[in-house]
Structures are given as structure tokens and as C-alpha cells.
Amino acid sequence: MQFSSTIRQMQDAVSKVSQAIPAKTIDPRYDNVHLTLENGLLTLFATDGELAITAKCPVETSDTGNIGIKAKTLQDFLRSMYDTPVSFTINRQEISDHGTVSISTDKGHYKIPCLFESKPEKTEKTYAITLELKTEELQDLIQKTIFACSVDGMRPAMMGVLFEIEENSITGVSTDGHRLVRCRKPITAEIAEKQKIVVPARVLSIIQKLAQNDSVTMSIDEDRRSVCYSCDNVVLEAALIVEPYPNYEAVIPVEHDKKLVAQRTDIYDSVRRVGRFSSIGDIKIDVNGATLKIMAENTNEGESAQEELTCNYTGEPITIGFNAKFIEAALAHIDQSEIIIELKSPTTAVIFKPGAAKEQEELIILVMPVRINN
């Protein structure tokens, strides 16, 4: 069994499917990239049991067959090579499922072990809902929500992004209990009723790397337990998080009597500077009239910082504390130059919005305040 390709084509395909390979596993089935030759096409497949990635790569061959190669070995070899034509010849050992892959390039010959196997089993699923999404819109939706996902394994539902799919919109929601993001994008979909699924953050981070062309097809199985993303010659299938997502709408305040409008970069840069002077990572924000003060101190080292900014503020004076990193992250994920901050009290969640009217409808970021010592 043999086939020919180029290092760059093979490296691209192997690097895509290898993202499904777990960092550590005691199951050797999940260590391998599975290669299938059929009809002049090389299909690569890798899985960790819950997430599977398939990629297709055109090659020169007239053979058919299936082998498994240790993913790390193959990937390390391809990464170390320059782009050049390459040929693979697979030989089977007598009375054994083991074999050798002989690799030839213009400057050398290499051998790595392989395993002859039957075609990897894939459970066929029936996808009841299919959406065609613009890659740019999906990438933006993921980028604006994934940062707020929880990493607490005791709350599995919050370790993913909740997608609410309706006829005219798709909404992504993420929260870790201290902050919450809701981002909405317009779409056109033939959906009879609102659908809710929770996609693991790891799956979405891989989609960010795989989705390159103009559109991505997102499919949901009829049991709402699996999701499939198709883009170009790559297919990713993954298990959904089935635990119910918290009722996030109940924590979004609807009545804020204080509103602050300011330049996003001014506040972002100030928080980054002042936050470095806090002993526990918290900052204090004081708003009175057109003046916004950002303060922090490290009493153990005798350090402190205070900066004053101008803003447009309506409401009674307020002093409120925040985790500086949460404010930085919120501001870093807003695209507009002007932001709106809505407040109510030192213990009520604060809403951050982009300043443009259209963006206000698409994105809100909630950050819970922290207790401060006066």
C-alpha cells in the first residue's frame, strides 16, 4: 500500500485531526491518527472518545487500506520537515497486524511503525437541525463568549457556551458565576421552535482554529446530544454537555439608575496600570459627576495608585469594587471605541455594553462587584 503527497498537505491535515488527540490517555486507540485510502483520497481520523475530527487530503494512489500511526510520531516528523514531495509505502509484517511506514523525500528515508486495522468505527447520527453560519460571525460569537466559561469541573454545564437558536438569531451565553456574557447574532434558519444546546469550551476553541473558509455548517442531532461542524474538508463531531444550563436571564438586572459613558481604551489602560498596585487584584472605582477615579493599594508593601478620567455620567455618586482581571477581560472583548456601563449599587451586577446602538442589542457583559474596605 502506498501513496504520494507533499509535506505541507500532510502536515496541514494531520495537525487538524491531531487536535482531537488527548494530552494524556491510557487507551492506545486514542493515541493514533487513523489513515484510510480509498478512491484516490486519504481520509484522516482522530478521536478521544467524545470528540472526533475527520480531514480529507488528496493524494496520488490507486491503493486502498487502513492503518493507524501514533499521532505524536507522525506530527513531530512532519513539523521537522520542509515542504517537499513525499511518498509513503506501508508494509505489513507476516502473521501480524503490525507494519512499517517507509517515508521517502528528496533528501532522506525514514521508517515509523504502524498498525493495520479495520476502518475506524464511527457511530452514524441523524442530524435534525442544520445551520449555515458565516465563519466570521461564528468566530466572533465564540471569541466574545468563551473567555467567561467556567473551568470548575463541579459545574459542568458552565464549562461550555449555551447556544440558543431561533429562526432569526443565534445567541451565545457563558458564565463562571462571577461574570456573564450574552452575545446575539442575526441568522436565517428554518426552526419551528427555540433550540438550546451547550457546546464544551474545548470544542469551540478547536473550531476557532479549524474554521477558515467563508462558512461553517453546524448540525445538531435529534437527541440534542451531539453537534457537528463542517468546514471545507474538515468535519468535527462532539458530544454536547447535557446538564441543564443555569437560568441566566434571572441574574441580568433590568433596572439600573446609573449610566456611565466613556472611552473604552482609556478605562482599559487605566485598569491595567492601577490593578498592578493591588495586593489581591481588586480595584476600587469611584464615579462622581464627570470624574471617574480608579484606585488600588497594597497595604503590605505601602504601594497605591489612583488615576482620574473624564466621563459622561448620570446618577448619584457611587463607589464600587471589582476584580481588575474581570474588568480587563470585559473591555478587551468589546470592539467599539465607546462603552456604556450601567450600575445600580455596590452589590449589584454591572453591565458593560458597546456604545453603538446596534452593538447594544448584540452584546452585554455582566461583572459582579467585590466587597471593598473603605
Please, could you describe this protein's structure?
This protein has 374 residues and is an alpha+beta fold. It folds into three domains: 2-116, DNA Polymerase III, subunit A, domain 2 (DNA Polymerase III, Chain A, domain 2, Roll); 127-249, Roll (DNA Polymerase III, Chain A, domain 2), CATH 3.10.150; 252-367, DNA Polymerase III, subunit A, domain 2 (DNA Polymerase III, Chain A, domain 2, Roll). Helix content is 18%, strand content 44%. The protein is built from seven helices and 25 strands. 33% of the residues are buried. The mean pLDDT is 92.
Shape: elongated
Distance between the termini: 75 Å
Number of helices: 7
Q: Under the CATH scheme, which architecture of the largest domain would be assigned?
A: Roll
Order of strands across the main sheet: 1-6-7-8-5-2-3-4-16-15-14-9
- Which regions are unreliable across 5 or more consecutive residues at pLDDT < 50? none
